[in-house]
Amino acid sequence: MSPPAKGLSEFVAEANEILDLLGRDLLVLDEQRRSELDPDLVNRIFRGAHSLKGLSGMFGQDAMADLAHAAEEVLDRLRLGKIEPSAPVVDSLVEALDALQALLSEASREGHEGRSAERAKLLANRLSSLASFGPPPSSDELDEIGLPAQIRAVFTEYEEHRLKENVRKGVPLWRVRAAFDLTDFDVGLAKVNDALKPLGEVISTLPSAEPGAGSGIAFDLIFGSKSAAERIHQALIELPAKLAPLSGQPAPAPSPVAEEKAAAEPARKPATTKRHRVSVRPRRPTEAPPPARVELPRLHAEEGPTPTERREPDLSLRSLTQTVRVDIRRLDSLMNAVGELLLIRANVQRLAESALAAGAHAVSKLWGQELSRECRALERKLDELQTGILDARMVPLGQVFDKLARLVRRLAREAGKELDFAVSGGEVELDKLIVEELSDPLMHIIRNAIDHGVELPDERAEHGKPRRGTVSLRAEQRGNHVVIEVSDDGSGLDESRIRQVAVQRGLVVADQAQEMNRRELQNLIFLPGFSTARSVSAISGRGVGLDVVKTNIANLSGIIDVSSEAGRGTTLTLTLPVTLAIIRALMVSVSDRTYAVPLNSVLEIVSVEGSEIRTVERREVFSLRGRTLPFMRLARLFALPERPLSRHFVVVVGLAQERLGLAVDELIGQQDIVIKPLGGKLRHIPGIAGATDLGNRRTVLVLDIGALMEEVISPERRAEFI
Amino acid sequence: MPPIRALVVDDSSAMRRSIVFALQRMGEVVCVEAQDGIEGLKRFVEAQYDIVLTDINMPVMDGLKLISHIRRGSAPNRVPIVVITTESAVEDRTRAMGLGASAYLVKPVQAQQVVEAVRALLRLGGSG
Question: Is the ipTM above a cut-off of 0.85?
Fold first, then answer.
């Protein structure tokens, strides 16, 4: 079918979403591999591959469709229990996912099919051979249940399989009949599902021909659960659902027996009453509820939890599918609208202030008060709008973390290292833009940790460490910032080696290298051209060092720091603002001009006596708690007349691990600003990130802290200040 | 001619969009979209439709059960149902038709095929 003109981008967006979910689910599958698989999970993965196949075929992406088809076949056999989730199967699926991702990114660039297509073909062949393994185990337990033909007619092969599996494992089967009003049955059904899922498996949702009552609608949920009848009953107590054993029960479709049975049910009430009493009895009188399962201690992470009772993470995975995809351009235009509104607010405010100040006439004063009240209301509304829009831009870090987890799996294998990847804080949300930009730096840091941090298994054993290393990725929100930590339990940074290399490459003078404290020394690894890696591997490659990571993080107004203990491991800490769209700025004045300093880079404000300022190699510096910081007079930098002052307000700004003191005349206050880029020739003025309109028809320049840092700490002078 | 009211049920929004796009070739069409069987059923009981187009493999409740309910539910309905699915096996087709599907199209499907199937079912002229 020929899709609409803008079809491709829509295809890419949806395919991307499916691939993201597949990636996340495949990881869970990999973890569960050695224990019992969660059927819902496998089915979800199957459906993902299935949807992708249909979608790709529709949009003429044949290479993707073929590979997705091959993966779907394997997954179909997996969900039907015809093949085992062996390592080759899961590995091939993970590889197929990577190949699909590559194909998709080729498709999104509308380029011709490149090498990815070739790889996809090979993978598809491999998957096909995996799918043909093993004879299908067949036995028809369903006949034993005596499932009515009407039900079997609407059962898919998969549902039949799940039913059989439950029978095979001796899991009691139930029929939950839920009756609702026509107006809200979807909501009601979701509630019943939510109540049942923690207790077992909802195998099928069948619409029932028998209406709940009057104009209602009823469903039969085929439910397998080892939970005691009493517990299921409890879960359903507030819901319009009745529980009955499935075996030997009449079909949900209209049959005289069903009607009779239903009529005999004492608890039957009109659909308007939402509560039904639940009649419960175990499947067979002799069948006591199973004894409480004894949880065995988990030895390895990959053993995974047992899947009989659903776990919390599953729920959070599910909620992700309900996130709304919003085009970032649409958000950007909304952002602009907010910018305009802020402008109006400020204008109104100015009017109010001038009227209040002029206040000779009572009327005008009254007018001013009124205006000011309006202004407050406007401000409240704006706050709401701003929060709402910022929220819409937020995406969970988990999106990046999941991709990284897949990468870790591959990298560890390639590097011959055994390791666990521990992730937490995936639910922490950041601006979409930041999350996107974070994936590369994080990937690089993690590669470093695997490649240079975690030692080989034998080496670890020699040092009395467990053979399996751990790389962990943690995110946490702290106020307006998100802190992301990547740590490994590897060999740690070799400080003497850092010192040696830094001096060798002229990054620091030998004397200074000796004087540096541990933290300063460790932070030298972020300097351009610094790399202590003795071997160059396929993983990290040569040339791209942590300095690039640092620059990337700095571009996001973030700070990076390292701390390491020899033999114990290394932790890199990234501190990032939650959003870049609207920032809070410190307004300062220099020679009667106002400038905005992004507040997220402001560390503190100190007052410095003129006498405290020293000159070292023609550059002014001052001391702050024993640390020497560059002292930059903004007036001088922008060639403005300098005021003779004995005391300076110094705004200490920090970016990554560097610090700088900016001398200003006055501090005006804080304000939310929307940064607009400078156009044309002005764009490249160093030290200026953009402009913002404060509303009083005055444009204020926003300082580019990163560029100012570069200005002061130019590479050849670095040694002086660090 | 009053606009055709169509219910399009598919878990892929791009797919729904393509089907709607195809239907719009026929002239004035009011399309209501749903992304799974339950939502489809919900939309179905809320309004009258001239035609239902549904996928089979969907989360929550699949297309087979949707068809089954439309045909054999408390208020059996004879609205034409077009299945548009990737399931190409004969038994899938037989099963869907057996439950009461009016037409069965296998993805990837040409817009023209959709239009022709809908026209035939609604007994519209060739020119629409």
Answer: no
